[in-house]
Amino acid sequence: DQQVKQNSPSLSVQEGRISILNCDYTNSMFDYFLWYKKYPAEGPTFLISISSIKDKNEDGRFTVFLNKSAKHLSLHIVPSQPGDSAVYFCAASATTSYDKVIFGPGTSLSVIP
Amino acid sequence: GAGVSQSPRYKVAKRGQDVALRCDPISGHVSLFWYQQALGQGPEFLTYFQNEAQLDKSGLPSDRFFAERPEGSVSTLKIQRTQQEDSAVYLCASSRGGAGANVLTFGAGSRLTVL
Predict the structure, then answer these.
(1) How far B80 CA lies from chain A's nearest CA (Å)?
(2) 3-state DSSP call for residue B35?
(3) Nearest-CB residue to B109 (from A43, A105, A106)
(4) Nearest-CA distance A70 → chain B (Å)
(5) DSSP, residue by residue, chain A
(6) In chain B, what residues touch A32 (CB-CB under 8 Å)?
(7) Other CB atoms closer than 10 Å to residue A59's CB: what's the count?
(8) pLDDT reading at B1 higher than 70
(9) CATH superfamily of this structure's domain A4-112
């Protein structure tokens, strides 16, 4: 049973436009959500996170939105740049226990120059 | 060190061989995790250490998988009698641990290919 879902395996966006990556989760105990970015032959690197007490967190070109009632979050990248081309993993944890992080299957983003 | 270091980066094993994968976490990080990432999928949790204590091994797929962190720093993931389905990238991550949310820092991974 997949607790974190990313239903779009891939996404192509023109440079300068907005990229929107979506994620859904099923476990109501999750209270901390993260996005990781992964280039080939490298480990995932942390991008941005959001606590369940917030509905939005912004860091430069990256914004994460959380809709708890829908158990849905999204990552917006504006403007998209070719260097943003990577696999993006949505992840979640229940911080009441420890830091165990559950990952989604990933969305491969291609930003076309 | 400055980051999480994993070795070897690449390992080819014949079916039935034993392999050992090493992880050097960030100095001072209390929590250490192992994940398995199959091709085209997200990282799947294997096991978790808090210092030297293995507090969660619920993700280990079989009793052929064994992990240890005897002194609370370096960790080794051992796979006995490797099978083809064990082929994957094995990722190690560490975090400060403690109360609240912590961000995991990952190593580059060890890619295991079982022939």
Answers:
(1) 24
(2) strand
(3) A43
(4) 22
(5) --SEE---SEEEEETTS-EEEEEEE--TT--EEEEEEE-TTS--EEEEEEETT-SEEEETTEEEEEETTTTEEEEEESS--GGG-EEEEEEEE-TTS---EEE---EEEEEE-
(6) 101
(7) 10
(8) no
(9) Immunoglobulins (2.60.40.10)
pLDDT at A96 over 80: no
Could you give the percent of chain B with pLDDT greater than 70? 96
User: pLDDT tens, B78-106?
Assistant: 999 999 999 999 999 999 876 666 789 99
Domain B5-114: homologous superfamily in CATH: Immunoglobulins (2.60.40.10)
pLDDT digits (tens, 9 = 90+) for B7-16: 999 999 999 9
Count of positions (residues) in chain A: 113
Question: How distant is the Cα of A33 from the closest Cα of chain B, in angstroms?
Answer: 9
Ordered by start, the domain boundaries in chain A are 4-112
